[in-house]
Amino acid sequence: MSEDSPISRRDMLRGRVLGPLLGGLRDAAASRLKPLAPEPAPSGAPPDAARAEATSRYAKSFPILRPPGAVEEEAFLAGCTKCNACVEACPYDSIIHAPVRFRRAAGTPMINPVGQPCWMCADAPCIASCEPGVLRFDLPMKMGVARIDETTCLPWMGTTCTVCSEQCPVPGAIEVRAGRPRIIEETCTGCGVCQHVCPAPGNAVILMPMAQRPPAPPADGRGATPASECNADEPE
Amino acid sequence: MNARALDRREFIRRSALTAAGAVIAARGESVGAVSLPLLQGSGGDEVVWDKAPCRFCGTGCHVQVGVQDGRVVAIAGDPLAEVNRGLLCVKGYHVGKILYGADRLTTPMLRRGDGHVPITWDEAIDLIARRIHAAPDRFAMYGSGQWTIGEGCAANKFMKAGLGSNHIDGNPRLCMSSAVTGFLSCYGVDEPAGCYDDLDACNVLIMWGNNPAEMHPVLFSRVIDRRARGEEILLIDIGTRRTRTTDHCQEYLEFRPQTDLAIANGIAHQLLKNGSWDTDFVSKHCNFRQLDPEQPANMYGKPMTFDEYAAALEPYTPEYVQSLSGVPAEKIRMLGDLFGDRSRRITSLWCMGMNQHTRGTAINCLVHSIHLLSGHFGRPGDAPTSLTGQPSACGTVREVGTLSHLLPGGRTVANEAHRRDCEDLWNVPQGRIKAAPGYHTVLMFEKFCTPSDAGGDIDTLWVQVTNPGQTLPNLHKLFNRKADLEGKFLIVSEVYPTATTRLADLILPSAMWVEKNGMYGNSERRTQQWFKMVQPPGEARDDCWQTIAVAHRLHELGHEGMKGNDGEFIFTIRDERGQIVPIWQWERYYDVNVDRHLFEEYRRFTRYKNKDLAPYDEYVRARGLRWPVVEQPGGTWRETRFRFAGFDDPYVTGGAEIQFYHSVTKDDRALVWFRPYEDPPEMPDAEYPFWLDTGRVLEHWHTGTMTGRISELRRAMPRAYVELHPDDARDLGVQRGDVVRIESRRGHIDLPVWINGRGSPARGQVFVPFFDETRLINEVTLDAHDPFSRQPDYKKCAVRVKRVPPDGQTR
Question: What residues make up the domain containing B96?
């Protein structure tokens, strides 16, 4: 920030500064671009056993943004038949197949909001289409939570921007005070619309998929009643 | 593909870092010969940084442009620039990407049937020259406030001093010509007396139909930042629609469209009634004026006495103003009290709300008048200041004079002495410049879209750096009709396909922004310079070169107008050894800095109205300088922040506190005007019950030709919409996202509804942004215009709104 910053400009450009700050990500700038897809190590980087181990652990446990109403991850992986029904049901093509780098999760449904976020349909056709019941109406439609990077968000830096709060499909999930957006974490569903529309250079929204989702309720109540507390207006 | 993807990733990463406020820059050699003082950096990096004004709006922020391997790879706000101090708006941070849209135009294209086929530049230049040569009087040129100063100088000289034709106008006619007539009517000379420094000094900021939070966000941030630091500043929004600016204002006065004139008169009435007007200021520095009913076309009107002035204002009691405008009488009194308090520092800001107005000249005059009457003028923070929407509306159009009635440096074609002056300065024979003004924008396009045998006496039209196919009002009448006419030839110099190139017969690919040398002049009289940093793509070439090449081809064809007094081509440029450089050959165009030569020629025009500009090299060193820029005894050059104020303006003589040295009345006094409220030409009625207001949005700049190619901005604001009042939406039975048809007597479009979104119009009004080339709201707007400025009113016409069921039928 300041002119007498000890950080060299080359480091800034190469993203060597933000990396350590974000705790072990090799390349934070790149990860900001593709939060779900950490890039491979730069070619020519010396092998580093500890780092490789950390990376591999990280990749295995990397949380994945599931469609709304998803059961706990192990149960999801066990139950999902990769039948494609939710992918086809989504009217916005928001649900995609997890790519190979997601390892065990490859081929299962996920959302990458940079490409297309979840627009929080009131009738959740993805859940309605899920035969194996790993997407359920009786679970909260909470996929994750958004965070705003105040060092990148334009209003936090002193210029006008109101896009995320205007486009957010969940009433009350983004509060604006003195022109600056704040995420209300309890209300936010992690749909990723704010990340999708954020025009800040590098994107000021960090989306954290739910690390721990609730297990499915014991009885088979799938599809009985649409969960209402998270429903929002039909997107435009 | 992969390399390209990596470039883009790198680009975004760097933009991200610059957005985080990192001060990063390196020293590098620019294209030009003069070295630049750049930001301190460690050097040695492969990215070369140079300065440029932002390509978008009239604020005039400076950016640092990072170039690597012949591509712009990074943009940073320039912390050395006074205008923006390192900050940019959402558009500015992405400005580098405007160069790299996938559909850049890269080759000249000629219409064949329904499509276009590539042709060579030589063929294109020859074709244009021959058409002009065959009928020079039936040729017109339509330019832009995005023309660089050099481009404007070349086009103006080519038309007025070459072809001897005044049929050259620019899109600022649609944008700020009412501000021009306002300044001329009050002070006898165009452009604001104050500058952005007023925003740092005022403690009351009144925004008249103005939304700087979206349209001039960096300027607005200066004010909001002051408040965040604990300074007391009263923000007042006088508008017809709640906007993002309103969110920050203590006072929001919502008025019925057109009644801003009544409000201004109400304030003047209060000042007189309370005796709180500044008798000392007025007695020393003001005369009173009104229109002359016997000469209604005379912008300068006729004198009136103070008593006549007071009598004319008599009806504008707060209660009467309330009945006209809907603004409560006590708020009119509040405004009157504010203006009556000389301890306050009051700055008024306005932009399109007051300018795009069939009474634009009148409301501009009235806002100046209440500042003059109350003495809120000439101290830092006390200023009536108009903002411009384009980066060089002031620099290229108002100052260079690329309008159909103007000559450079504040001169007019109608004035014989001005014509002689310009003929001498341009070194062309006496009598070359025509006395009659050419066609203003609306008339130019009306003539172009009228059959040649039915009085449509413009057959060939050359459009540069603007998109009239989207921005003209009443498009069906003023533009779309061209499609069905024989014998009309539309030439468009553009960077991307637009609504205008759709009907073009010849498309010329242009270089843009840092692909060429350029200069801009922003809203606060600040002239800015930049150097070419990267090559334009394909065969794209500078607009200025295009003009000069056509002029030279005409010269070769024997057109006498392309010769000066010395018999030489009017754009003759010699190198240091005195050799003529054939700049009309593209490969030789950058052998010299044509921009520098054109600017140095133009600079000699600027002293007449004390708009003095410094030599080119001073601008190379500076982040812009505000005119008049006057040489100091030590050989340095000093800019002027507060015009007409004795403490700052070098042209104020005799130690006067204030001197209006270009006074209309030749007595160093400004004019305080009385202009009555009058109804607009079209008002809602039973058939068309809604007011339609149009405007811009933060994320897109004007017609979105550039910003529409930036994916971040497109995702943030993908398409146009219509804002409705919630009660009107309920009555129509529509919700957010439902489609309604907006229909006027001139056209209709269908748009999705947005309620309580970005802005909130009053009941009975709708607002539609005009950036979306797939939904042209200007097919609906009205082409009625101000009688003095000829500026159309995009802010009010009558429409009806109908729900469009999903099957697309409204009935």
Answer: 2-100
Backbone angles phi, psi at B613, to 5 degrees: -110, 150
User: What pLDDT does B182 receive?
Assistant: 96
Residues B248 and B158 in one domain: no
Same domain, B346 and B446: no
In this predicted structure, the answer to whether residue B598 has a pLDDT above a threshold of 50 is: yes
Q: Do B699 and A179 touch (CB under 8 A)?
A: no
Set of chain B residues whose Cβ sits within 8 Å of the Cβ of A2:
23
Interface predicted TM-score of the whole assembly (ipTM), two decimals: 0.87
pLDDT score recorded for residue A103: 85
Among B339, B205, B367, which Cα is nearest to B277's? B339
Residues of A in contact with B26 (CB under 8 A): 9
Per-residue tokens: B558: 């024997």
Q: What is the pLDDT of residues B641-689, one digit of tens each?
A: 999 999 999 999 989 999 999 999 999 999 999 999 999 999 999 999 9
Query: What torsion, rounded to 10 degrees, do the Cα atoms B701, B702, B705, B709 define?
Result: 30
Q: B651 in helix, strand or coil? A: coil
Closest-CA distance, B218 to chain A, in angstroms, reads 6
For residue A28, give its domain range. Answer: 8-39+48-62
Specify if B783 maps to a domain. Answer: yes
Q: Which residue is listed with tokens 């928001």?
A: A94
B418 shares a domain with B475: yes
Averaged over A117-125, what is the pLDDT?
A: 95
CB within 8 Å of chain A, chain B residues 75-134: 87-90, 93-94
Q: Catalogue the E-assigned strands of B474-628.
A: 489-494, 506-509, 518-521, 526-530, 625-626
CA distance B262 to B269: 10
Tell me the per-residue pLDDT of B234-261, one tens digit each, with 9 for 90 and over: 999 999 999 999 999 999 999 999 999 9
Contacts of B367 (CB under 8 A, 6+ apart): B182, B208, B264, B348, B350, B354, B384
Cβ-based contacts of A29 with chain B (< 8 Å): 13, 16-17
A 10 A CB-CB count for B750 gives 15
- Are residues A165 and A176 in contact, defined by beta-carbon separation less than 8 angstroms? yes
Residue B155 CA to residue B402 CA, distance in Å, equals: 8
> Do B215 and B76 have their domain in common?
no
d(CA B467, CA B394): 19
- End-to-end Cα separation, chain A, in angstroms: 39
B238 inside 8 A of chain A by CB? no
B610, part of any domain:
no
CATH code: domain of residue B93 = 2.20.25.90
How far apart (Å, rounded) are the C-alpha atoms in residues B521 and B538? 29
Torsional class of B656: left (φ above 0), alpha (ψ -120 to 50), beta (otherwise)? beta
**Nearest-angstrom CA–CA distance, A205 and A167:** 14
Domain count, chain B: 4
Number of compact structural domains in chain A? 1
Instruction: Please say if B175 is a catalytic residue.
Output: yes
B785 residue type, one letter:
H
Q: Are residues B515 and B399 in the same domain?
A: yes
Q: How many CB atoms lie within 10 A of CB A185?
A: 12
Looking at residue A18, its amino acid is L
Question: Which CA distances in Å does B176 have to B14, B350, B357, B360, B505?
Answer: 36, 10, 10, 9, 29
Query: Do residues B433 and B423 lie in contact, with contact meaning Cβ atoms separated by under 8 Å?
Result: yes
Strands B489-494 and B506-509: parallel
* Structural domain includes residue B357: yes
Residues B275 and B360 in one domain: yes
Q: In angstroms, what CA-CA distances link B191 with B291, B393, B395?
A: 22, 11, 10
Q: Are B341 and B254 found together in one domain? A: yes
Segment (H or E) for B543: helix B543-556
Q: Distance (Å, rounded) from C-alpha B574 to C-alpha B17?
A: 44
